[in-house]
Design a protein that fits this description.
alpha+beta; Helix Hairpins; 2 domains; 4-stranded mixed beta sheet
Length: 210
Amino acid sequence: MILSNDLLNKIDWEKGNGLVPIVVQDEEKEVLTLGYMNKEALERTLKSRNLFYYSRTKNRIRMKGEISGNFQFLKDIRLDCDNDALLLTVEQIGPACHLGTKSCFSEKVELPKEEDRIDYSFSILQELENVIKSRKENPDEKSYTSFLFKEGKEKIFKKFGEEAVEVLVAENRERRIYETADMIYHLLVVLSYEGISFSEILKELKGRRK
């Protein structure tokens, strides 16, 4: 726990050019607003328990509610792990937003459809790798993957080569995407046959990054 007297010196003020961003939430943990404080605004807040913000547009310190009467009273304050942001819990009097809404974050944004979501975590490759491994260790006569492992190295390597060529000769963008997916699947089969995990490939790529 940080003593309030030590907080002013612990914050990395230089990173924000003398300002620290503050996330303000109510006692039910609903985020109300995002603002900024300089050292003097934070000092006033700690001493009075009234929230003081630094206005970047007006270049001055202002107390929340000084005109509207929608005061915020400090209940809890936490410093983030990089010492450059604060989370403040407050008792909110009236609406927090100048538009009259409870929160400044009241306008909901529609997310892309799930089928259009791009997964950058490579989780689908991990899932596919696990399925291939399962078909290798527990053959299923109805499985194409099990069939490849049964046929052996020559068949597995030949199919990968064929799919790589299909990528190169694809006549349009959609077909190239389709053939690339096939090629990646057959590459994973090759790697599984050789006892190489895809994580080893990622590790090698990461090691080459400079």
